[in-house]
Design a protein that fits this description.
282 residues, alpha+beta, DNA polymerase, domain 1, TIM Barrel, 2 domains, six-stranded mixed beta sheet, 35% helix, 14% strand, globular, binds iron/sulfur cluster
Length: 282
Amino acid sequence: MTSGGRPHYMCRVMQPSMPSREQRPNLVGLGRAALAAELAAVGAEPFRARQLWHWIYHRGATDFALMTSLSKTFREALAAHYALSRPAVSQALTSIDGTRKLLLRFADGQEVETVYIPEEERGTLCVSSQVGCTLSCTFCHTGTQRLVRNLTAAEIVAQVMIARDDLGEWPPAAQPERQVTNIVLMGMGEPLFNYDNVAEALKIVMDPEGLALSRRKITLSTAGVVPAIRLAACGPRRHPRPAGPAQPQIPYCRIARRLPQLSRCQQRAAHYLRIRDAERYQ
Ligand code: SF4
């Protein structure tokens, strides 16, 4: 770990070509492997990734200086190379029933909505997966917008983190009962057309040492992307990815209204549930 009595990460800190504030990679939204790789790049020991994970995803830290279990030198090294940033909240509206709608703006100027719906027994966060949508469900305003891009896993995770910021839900100030108890992927976009990023984001959200949302409290809604339902049930290792582009270039024509497709969708959904039940009782 040390070279001439100095930690390796100090060597990088002392390099003249430190990234500017805007160029610093953001650690918020990285999965465990990516976070470990970033820290290895600055010469930090492997256990540091677990410490950072705790501060980012369990405590919701937005400033390295607050990570008091890390040495001051290491905190300074992190701050010199990395950011802990969230998207900006460009608008926040609260309805009379307490529903709170947040409009989030990402670094490239694109915006999505995240909605928190409080109920007596639970609090549900409706999360977006794309900017715009390729589908055109007749009841949906997003369906009138063109698809701009998929959200990254980090941008999907950030919606959960911003909601917890907004509700003041991070420990130690958090109320005894959690406020964001459930997540539904029913915001902007078709989540199964952004399968990889959604799957990576949910892995982060479900991690028991971080945001710790139970899989049973997360609902993914689809308009009927049949091949991806099987992929979600079995995972890419147990079932090959369907052939073809990950993101269709032509608009899908109202999948949910095509009955043959719907029947296959129901079969796949039943298949998904059988696999999940089998896993539960293993
Ligand atoms: S898939 Fe979802 S976001 Fe897209 S148009 Fe249909 S309801 Fe709207």
